[in-house]
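REQUEST FORM: STRUCTURE PREDICTION
Request ID: SP-0412
Submitted by: Lab K.M.
Chain count: 1
Length (residues): 141
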Amino acid sequence: MIFNFILPKSIEELRLEIRQKFLNYANIHKTLIRPLIATCKVYHLAPVNATGGVESSDWFAMEFTSPDQQKGWATIIRLSKSASENYLFKPKGLDGRRKYSVTFDNTGKAVAFEGSQLMREGITIQLGPGHASELLLWEAD
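STATUS: Completed
RESULT:
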């Protein structure tokens, strides 16, 4: 297989920075995504819409929320290099009466928001040079 020549034989052979990213994503998958994926609500936020289909936006965004609206995640991807560096993410599956801690995976920064504020005003996702995507993680307090 072609990847056998590119990839290291074990995780210990990866550079520390890359190894930490792989371990972080494995942890997110094990603790958040895998337990919820079969029952979560999925919202297609961009570019799928009734008028333009899947080619109507420079962005791709999907939201995944637990049935109890306690936690979830969103994947936001800039599809075009010519697109703006900013995307306004307005989640749909939150409880407006709860407070949420939202973590930006690229930076690890966590910010507290009211659910109603998030759904009404949204969060601006800024993807500067070197970043084409953001993974948002949230959990109700």
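NOTES: DSSP finds three helices and eight strands in the chain.
Reviewed by: T.R.
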